[in-house]
Each structure stands twice: as structure tokens, then as C-alpha cells.
Amino acid sequence: MHTAKKWLIEEQAKTAVTNLKRRGYDDAVYVSSAPEACERVVQALEPGQIVGTGGSITLNETGILNAIRSHDYTLIDPDASGLLSEEAWELRKEALRKSDVFITSVNALTLDGKMVSIDGAGNRIASMLYGGPDKVIVVCGTNKIVSDVQQALWRVHHVAAVCNARRFDLKLPCTEGSRAPECIDCWDVERHCRAVLILEKQPMRKEYLVIIIGEDYGF
Ligand code: SF4
């Protein structure tokens, strides 16, 4: 990566971290690489804890899920059981109800520190709010940083939701036909993107660790 681009990415990430802190996320940090992020995650967990996730390319690509698996934690990972199997649905509930810590990415982060996520069943975004695990770890690549909520909403639909539809080989207007890969806010009964969460400040009564990595991960 050219040094000028690296500088830009780092400055944007640091701006986002500063603003996350202003929004109540005292434990918001910038790291330059995935191994550093893995180290931060492992440091934040206690032996024996149950760690839930909702399925995340970022957590796979960074090696964070493997790092969790290789330590003394119990990982609840619904994606490992196939997207729509009954077992996966049960594991999503377990990750929400039984985890000590929920680990996830978000689909967009604004420069002024708002995090935006899109979900199908809502298990992932519910886990980030009151009633889910007491602690949440968010890991986000700098490719998801956008200027404002309007851009974030565009990104979660036109990038994250479309890529997820493609990832799971879903037959939808954004994955096949004349409009693909555009998101047309469809009425398809199989539509997988059904709920959007905008975190404007750290949710009350939740502990958050937010790790921004200066590289591209997930979508
Ligand atoms: S709303 Fe429809 S077209 Fe848009 S991403 Fe979701 S499934 Fe695809």
C-alpha cells in the first residue's frame, strides 16, 4: 500500500476512534494489523468464558475466531452449522442468551463514531443491545469507514447485504437478473436483510471494546 494511502487510512481510523470515545466507548482502539487485533481480543477475555458470535467474515479473515478456538473459551458459532439449519438457529439463540461476551463486526462506521449494522433475524444486532451478553467486542476494518449515516446506510444495503446474499448463494434481485448487483430494496419473500441498527452512543448497561484495524476486512 502506498504510504500516502496508509497515512489517510490511519488518520481516518484515529478520527473514528476519537469520536467513538466521545460517544462513550472508552475502550475504542486502533491497531494496524490483524495479529494485534487477535492479541487485544484474547487479552479482553477471561479463561472459561462463553463467547458468542453471529457469523462474520471479518472475524474469520483476521484469524480472530481461530484465536478464540485455540484458547480456553467456549465459542458459539452458528455459521459453522450452515446458514439455515435448525442447529444454527438454536445456536443463534444460545449466543444471544448464554454468552458472557458477544464478538462481532459492524457493516459501517462513520467518521463521527456511529456504528451501523444490517441483519436478517436480528440475533446479531440484538446481542449488541441490552438483554444480550453484558460485554460486546466489535472488530472493524477501515474499509467500512464512511463519512456519515447516509453513506453508512447506503453501504450496509449496497455492499454488505448484497455480498452476504452472494456469499450464501441466495437467489435474490441483487444476485441475479438485470438489476444485480444493485440493491433495489426488494419485496422478495426470501429477502435476508431485514433490520438495521444504528448505534449513536454506547448502549447503556453494556461494556464495549471496539477494535479498528488499519486494513480491509469483511464487508
Ligand atoms: S433488499 Fe433485496 S435487493 Fe437489496 S440487498 Fe436485500 S435482498 Fe438484495
**Topology pattern, helix = H, strand = E:** HEHEHHEHEEEHEEHEE
Shape: globular
Low-confidence stretches: none
CATH A-level architecture: 3-Layer(aba) Sandwich
Beta-strand residue fraction? 15-25%
The total domain count is 1
Main sheet: strands, sense, barrel: 6 strands, parallel
State the CATH superfamily name. NagB/RpiA/CoA transferase-like
Q: State Rg.
A: 17 Å
Distance between the amino and carboxyl termini: 19 Å
How would you classify the helix and strand content by structural class? alpha/beta
User: What is the strand tally?
Assistant: 10
Mean pLDDT: 96
Provide the CATH top-level class.
Alpha Beta
- Strand sequence of the main sheet, in spatial order? 1-10-7-4-2-3
Query: What is the count of DSSP helices, taking H or I runs of 4+ residues?
Result: 7
For this structure, the CATH topology is: Rossmann fold
Bound molecules: iron/sulfur cluster
Estimate the helix proportion, in percent. Answer: 25-40%
Can you lay out the helices and strands and say which pair or pack?
Blueprint: H1 3-22, E1 27-31, H2 34-44, E2 50-53, H3 57-61, H4 64-69, E3 74-76, H5 86-98, E4 101-104, E5 108-110, E6 115-119, H6 123-127, E7 135-141, E8 145-146, H7 149-167, E9 195-199, E10 207-213
Parallel strand pairs: 1-10, 2-3, 2-4, 4-7, 5-8, 7-10
Antiparallel strand pairs: 5-6, 6-9
